[in-house]
Amino acid sequence: MTLTNATSTRRIRRLAERQTTDRDALFELLDGELVGHLAAVVDGAPVVVPMGYARDGEHVLVHGSTGGGFALRAASDRSTVAFAVTALDGLVYARSLFDSSMNYRSAVVYGVLEPVEAEATDAALLALSERLMPGRAAEVRPTTRKEASATRVLRLALDDVVMKQRAAGASEAPDDGEDHSTWAGVVPLTRTWGTPQASPLTPAQAPVPESVVALTTRPAPNRRLH
After folding, report:
1. How far is CA 194 from CA 191, 212, 217, 218, 220, in A?
2. Which end of the chain is more exposed for a tag (fewer CB within 10 A), N or C?
């Protein structure tokens, strides 16, 4: 499967060989991360805000308060936004600082934010919840109508995407003129969840819920160097 780039000018020019059009790689990136950065131009000035998100099929879902925010404004203005997600997989130690690098996967999605229809809001909020805190919705009280009405869910189609990645060791060659007795290689970066910490008002005898146990014991989503 390949990515769809509706705008032909959105092409990586520097190190263009690192661009990928593999849609499965895009989904792996989006499904493995929890935070993206939404960017828009507001009153002539750039605004970038980090926010949690979820991929729902061919869309990215984000949410915010109905009381305002630049995302809602961008949606109502039908202005183009950019949503960026990056995963750092490791640091690449070469034999010079100039040649040192990172192993990473990054994607930028361009498009117009669309409000999720009222009848689909509950399902969209559940999708966000299940992505960020899987299983938690079944353990807590239902969302009230007041809470739901104060929340707006927006979606961004995965139609115009540029993705770039690096997954390799340090650049080297037998005749590169470097001192090969100097160590070179990759330090992979992995993430793990810490020990759950109960809130001050949670009774000491309250068991850690299944959703938290599952979250803290499942493998991290990082992709190791091949």
Report:
1. 10, 11, 10, 12, 12
2. C
Q: For the chain of 226 residues, list the mean pLDDT of each consecutive stretch of 10.
A: 52 78 93 94 88 94 78 78 96 96 96 90 92 94 87 92 94 93 95 93 96 86 47
Sign of CA dihedral 149, 152, 26, 32: negative
16-171+183-189 belongs to CATH 3.40.50.10420: no
Give kind and range of the element (H or E) at residue 171: none
Write down the domain spans for the chain.
16-171+183-189
Look at the chain and count its residues: 226
Nearest to 33 by CA among 92, 107, 136: 107
> Percent of the chain having pLDDT more than 70?
91
